[in-house]
């Protein structure tokens, strides 16, 4: 692993450690849902997440279903 990759992993672990117990569970449920999804669904969610990270125009009401939302809907 490169130094940058290792630093990114550490940053992710630090962010996870700082989550509340509830948020950790929500994250792990979403991760579990993602890991057991079909490759096609995983790819769709990845595209949705990348799109969600892009700036949106004011008034854009586009709604997508993510692994986190799918996990929440199961409960």
What would you note in describing this structure?
- With 75 residues, the chain is an all-alpha fold.
- The protein has one domain (20-74).
- The chain has helices at 3-17, 21-36, 39-52, 67-74.
- Helix 2 (21-36) crosses helix 4 (67-74).
- The N and C termini lie far apart (37 Å).
> Low-confidence spans: pLDDT under 50, at least 5 residues?
none
Radius of gyration: 15 Å
**Count of strand segments:** 0
Order of helices and strands: HHHH
Structural class: mainly alpha
Gap from first CA to last CA: 37 Å
Count of domains: 1
Largest sheet: none
Helix content: over 70%
Query: Percent of residues in beta strands?
Result: under 5%
Average pLDDT score? 86
Given the C-alpha coordinates, what overall shape results? globular
Count of helical segments?
A: 4
Q: How would the blueprint of this fold be written?
A:
Layout: H1 3-17, H2 21-36, H3 39-52, H4 67-74
Q: Short summary of the structure?
A:
By secondary structure, the chain is mostly helical.
Quickly list its features:
mainly alpha; single chain; 4 helices; 75 residues
């Amino acid at each position: 692993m490169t130094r940058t990759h290792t630093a990114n992993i550490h940053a992710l672990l630090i962010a996870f450690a700082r989550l509340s117990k509830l948020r950790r569970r929500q994250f792990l449920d979403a991760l579990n849902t993602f890991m057991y999804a079909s490759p096609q669904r995983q790819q769709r969610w990845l595209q949705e997440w990348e799109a969600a990270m892009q700036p949106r125009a004011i008034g854009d009401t586009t709604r997508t279903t993510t692994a986190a939302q799918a996990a929440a809907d199961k409960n």
